[in-house]
Amino acid sequence: MAKVLITGAAGFIGFHLSKRLLEQGDEVVGLDILNDYYDVNLKRDRLRLITGAPGFRHVPIALEDRVAMQRLFSEENFDIVVNLAAQAGVRYSLVNPYAYIDSNVSGFLNIIEGCRHNSVRHLVFASSSSVYGANTKMPFSVHHNVDHPVSLYAATKKSNELMAHTYASLYGVPCTGLRFFTVYGPWGRPDMAYFLFAKAILEGRTIDVFNYGKMQRDFTYIDDIVEGIARVMEKIPKPDPLWAGDLPDPSTSYAPYRLYNIGNNNPVELMHFIEVLENCLGKKAKKNLLPIQAGDVSATYADIDDLIRDVGFQPSIRIEEGLSKFVKWFRDYYRQ
To answer: Could you read off the pLDDT of 172-193 as tens digits, one per residue?
Structure first.
């Protein structure tokens, strides 16, 4: 039994992880200010499902509120911190860049400072497959260099990895970064393509299909993501005795620091993904084929060998099963 701080507890991944940890008897403090980047009612409904659970407490604190964050850490004595709160979205970062610096950089500094000064035994934080940016060598590996982001969102996630390594090196804070690959499933984010597609198809509206449907994504079902996080939480990183500065491995370090991909290891073309969604919905989509958008990458594909080796887990839920579960939830939640 552990006392865990989950930031972004009313978010998609944070909600599912909170449920999982509460079911196994952990104490969870869920930090979330319920911002209006997307439907606040959906966040409230997620939160409502876990608020009454024994061992859960919600704290409405903004990551960038330095004083409140210092007080929270000093009063609570967390064993583990899982940072899932962030200003999300690649495309939104093109129009509101300051939101990403406030939450993802300044807010992350407050988290890692809290871990440093209060003997947190493991910080697990969300990174993103977007950090691979202009990389084209597939599958994307945590051992590859990732110095060419193509969106500010990706740059902030890369900055989190750099900040975490610095604190692991200077202060011995054990840090593990998780690069998530296109997460989907019930209670998902309404700004994600599959969610927008489902709503538009059922309403008979046209969907915008970028890169003419040739985009490839390593779609990863939410239950697989949560299982991966839960296992990594218990795998506290140690210094790698084989790490060498003359040939530095980005995924590990002489400090207690580690990076993992969590993806399905099976990229799917967007047009096929839409076909599966159409089958689940029982209705065809009207498609508006468009070129790729600024900040997007044409493909993602996760190398998960390190995850399998270190925590014995490999995501396995196929899109046919995952989308079927999403559509069932979607119809129930929106009464369609």
So the answer is: 999 999 999 999 999 999 999 9
Q: Is 153 tagged catalytic?
A: yes
Rounded to 5°, the CA angle 100-213-196 comes to: 55
pLDDT of residue 94: 83
What radius of gyration, in Å, describes the C-alpha atoms of the chain?
A: 19
Tokens 């080796």, residue located: 309
> What Cα–Cα distance (Å) separates residue 24 from each residue in 20, 28, 126?
7, 11, 22
Q: Which amino acid is at 313?
A: F
pTM: 0.95
Token representation of residue 8: 């972004």
Can you give the pLDDT at residue 91?
79
- Angle 262-266-261 from CA coordinates, rounded to 5°: 15
Task: Please tell me the distance from the alpha carbon of residue 142 to that of residue 302, in angstroms, as a whole number.
Answer: 9
pLDDT tens profile 259-311? 999 999 999 999 999 999 999 999 999 999 999 887 777 889 999 999 999 99
| Phi, psi angle pair for 126, to nearest 5° | -80, 120
In single-letter form, the type of residue at position 148 comes to H
Prior bond of 186 cis (ω within 30°):
no
As a whole number, the mean pLDDT across the chain is: 95
N-term to C-term CA, the chain: 40
Q: How many of the other CB atoms lie within 10 Å of CB of 96?
A: 12
Under DSSP, is residue 250 helix (H, G, I), strand (E, B) or coil?
A: coil
State how far the Cα of 6 lies from the Cα of 111, in Å rounded to an integer: 11
* Catalytic position from the list 153, 167, 194, 260: 153
For residue 248, pLDDT beyond 90: yes
Q: Which two tokens stand for residue 91?
A: 């495309």
H helices of 172-260, in order, are: 193-202, 222-233
- Tokens 């958008």 sit on residue: 293
In 3-state terms, what secondary structure has residue 50?
helix
Q: Say yes or no to pLDDT of 315 above 80.
A: yes
